[in-house]
Amino acid sequence: MGGFYLDTFNEDGEVMYGLDISVHPDYRNQGMGRGFYEQRFFYLSILGNLKMYATTCRLPDFRASGYSNVRQYCEDVKFGQRADRTLTPLLRYGLFLADVLENHMDDPESGNAAALLEYKP
Q1: Cβ(111)–Cβ(74) under 8 Å?
Q2: HSE of 76 in the Cβ direction (CA atoms, 13 Å)?
Q3: For the chain, what is the mean pLDDT?
Q4: Where are the domains of the chain?
Q5: Which of 15, 31, 86, 93 has its C-alpha lying 20 to 30 A from 42's C-alpha?
Q6: What whole-number distance in Å separates Cα of residue 87 and Cα of residue 111?
Q7: pLDDT, tens digit, 9 for 90 and up, residues 92-114
């Protein structure tokens, strides 16, 4: 996916990798995040050589959730049995939970894990 610093970025690759998007709390719930992702998906469709969009997202509600298994937590978010303030909206935007990357980053709030998300047009 390009690595932490996108060291393995390949401009001739077939995957568009998205970096973090954050919306200031004063402007949330107004469709801004969805708009950013819709633009990413639009560019994916017009560039032609790309097969998919992929990103990782942190899981800020995992630690406080009471779950001990991050994979189960993500599956429950995926199926609407609980919400996560980052993962839930991304799934609503049409991204697919492809995997859970354990020990992905130093982020105790996320259990040091991230969700690997994909979007295929």
Answers
A1: no
A2: 16
A3: 89
A4: 31-44+52-119
A5: 86
A6: 14
A7: 999 999 999 999 989 999 999 99
